Structure formats: structure tokens, C-alpha cells
Amino acid sequence: MRTFLTIIFVLVCIALSVIVLAQQGEDAGLGAIGGIGDTYWSKNKSRSMEGKLVQITKILAVAFILLAVILNLNF
After folding, report:
1. Burial of 26 per CB tally in 10 Å (0-12, 13-18, 19+)
2. What's residue 37's pLDDT?
3. What pTM was computed for the model?
4. Phi/psi at 23 (5° precision)
């Protein structure tokens, strides 16, 4: 069981690294000062590929933490 969880943990670590590196930076630029940054795309970002990457990142981060805690228990 521990070997199986360790393999899953390594796969989650690799996937999390790849997903984080695939995301773009949060560059607002000078448009954020005047409120120009609120475009149609920025309001509907969750439906885009970048929004899906953010959701996958959150899920993988939770899985990473849970697996790290479970593997740290002495059972």
C-alpha cells in the first residue's frame, strides 16, 4: 500500500510541476491602475484553458498535501 501511495505521490509531484510551469504570469501592466484590466476575457477567465489550469493546480496541490501527510504517518 505504501509503495502504491508513493508512486501516486511522485506522479502528482511531476504533474503539479508541469501544470505550474505551463501557466502564464499574472502581468496586469499599467492598465490595472485605471481599471482597464477588466476586460471580457479577464471576467470569463475560468472558462478558458488558463482557468482550467488554475483549477487543476488547486486539485493537485490538495492531493499533494494529503498524500504527504498520509505517507508521513507511521502505519
Report:
1. exposed
2. 54
3. 0.70
4. -80, 155
Spatial neighbors of 18 by CB under 8 A, at least 6 apart, are none
Position 56 confidence tier, pLDDT thresholds 50, 70, 90: very high
- If DSSP codes are grouped into helix, strand and coil, which group holds residue 68? helix
Judge contact between 13 and 67, C-beta under 8 A.
Answer: no
Distances (CA, A) of 22 to 4, 17, 59: 27, 9, 16
Minimal CA–CA distance to 20: which of 47, 73, 74, 56? 56
Mean pLDDT of the chain: 82
